[in-house]
Amino acid sequence: MNVLRNNRLKHWCSRWVASVRRTHTNHPAATKENKFIVEDLQQRQLVRVKGEDVVPFLQGLTTNDIRQLESSHTGSLYTMFLNKAGRVLYDAIVYKAPSDSSTILIESDQDVCNELMRHLKLYRVRRKIQIDNIAEELKVWCVFQVGEGPACVLPQMPVDNMDIIGDPRLPELGYRLLATSDRTSEEISKLLKNLSNTKIELSNVASNYRLHRYSLGVAEGVQDMPPGKQFPLEANCDILNGVSFNKGCYIGQELTARVHHTGVIRKRHMPLNLKNPLMENSSYAMCNDAGAKVGNVLGSIETKALALVRIEKALKTKELTIDGKPCSVEIPKWWPPLLLNNVVAREEA
Q: Where is the secretion signal located (predicted)?
């Protein structure tokens, strides 16, 4: 049975590779020149949580082990806040404040920043914890590499009143920059140029952070993860270093742990290649050749999209369509090799 499953999986994957190659023939050739793209993440804001009990306080509210923040080589952790039913409320990157163990910065989507603060205050109870929105003090930027050459590296350290921090999810996502709100894109670009000796460009239509994320299959914010609609493992939180299965109890922990230990995760976020950009009146439903729905588009930009996909059903399908137009699903390169085998085994059990 294992041999049959593996042969079937290889057949699906070879068909997927062929479809991706057909889709990419319509795209311009990838640039061979290495360069960094810099973007002001206006959709992200920072909340400062300060107090002697800040670590145990956040430990009971988030999926990751906040205690590891102190030993993290990047000084950051990816995590999620869940509701009692184990569904995602808010995704976040948390940062340790330099030389202040009683302060943690939480980066989240600006559209739910106030809701996140209310959520924190609800569970603060009598703890002496101070919670403030510091969007007027600090802004979040990102820097990521494009090109086919060797990886370019930035020093992960405070430089000229700006913190350079590696993205805790994937190396391909590059770096986060926490800079004072008065810093301009020209100042930041000049500083990065001096640090890396690499070409620096500001984001544009052809190269921007959202397009880069969707190419990788990484969700971020409430557009990709509407509050209360998805489970953390469907959003790849486990393979993006965003959940600890050893930390103990937190809100939503019971269902998350049960799903992890049973291994039944049939749907996950995956990147899509579109033949044409989606129209505003799109159904956002991805269907197989029999017309059955096998996924739902969460967001798209140009000919790239992110979808919540029934993995096994999508990979078995000869032709996927959205609104009757062909599309193809990609298997992210950063997925663990055994993940697909587990999906096939569970589906056929």
A: none
